[in-house]
Amino acid sequence: MFAKERRLEILSMLMNKKKVRVRELSDLFNVSEVIIRKDLKLLEEEGKLERTHGGAILRKEIPEDISLTTRMISNVEGKNRIVEKLYKLIERGEIIFLDSSSTNLMLAQKLAQFPKEVTIATNMLDIMKTLENVPGITLIGIGGTYHSLLGTFLGGIALDSVLGINSQKLFLGGAGIDIQRGNLSIFDSDEVQLKKAMIKMASKVYFVCEGEKFSHYGIYNFATLEDIDGLVTDMEMEPQITAKLEEHEIEII
């Protein structure tokens, strides 16, 4: 993982847990504590956190959109390649779940520019704003308790809404994928149940996976390789990864 991506994940963890420990981050990212301290120092200089003894806490006045903003500027070229592949997967008349992810937001922007006659169901507010009043697109907003740092609706109401929608396809985001253990994971525990519900209600599940997500993982598992039908990525697969995916009959796109 590049230093830039590692720092984005540290911010994501802070937004969920409110505090992090140097030793915990060192173990999670498999880098030295010296490197982690440098990351925290840089993020503090950028005004995004406050360092404490042995760790860091989230600044109270941190902008609410920082999580999405930082994700949107990370690996833009790779995300664009994935968006083109996702766009081609969408067929006329389908109902598509888009969960909360920066790549799915970029896909929504593509659909706003080049619409298809489809129904989009999403719990991400920025996707709703992007697709409102776009000709040919029927928009289903999945409501619930709004999490401003995530820019998404979660909770029991959102869960009930998802369980009432039959979808042809789900484009699923996540923090990482552990090929050996067969787990997909995220950093925010509040998203786990909603992702599981979307997986249950979709006929086909495509995991949206940038190359660096093969080298690191989140904290909470929300799915296994058995749950996904396809993996959409921006990189060439290593032979051992390809073999593992093919073992589970997962299409590589």
TrEMBL record:
PROSITE patterns from the UniProt entry: HTH_DEOR_2
SMART domains listed in its UniProt record: DeoRC, HTH_DEOR
SUPFAM superfamilies, alphabetized: NagB/RpiA/CoA transferase-like, Winged helix' DNA-binding domain
Domain HTH deoR-type residues, every copy: 3-58
Pfam families hit by this protein: DeoRC, HTH_DeoR
GO MF, one example: DNA-binding transcription factor activity
Keywords annotated in UniProt: Transcription, Transcription regulation
Protein name: DeoR family transcriptional regulator
Organism: Propionigenium maris DSM 9537
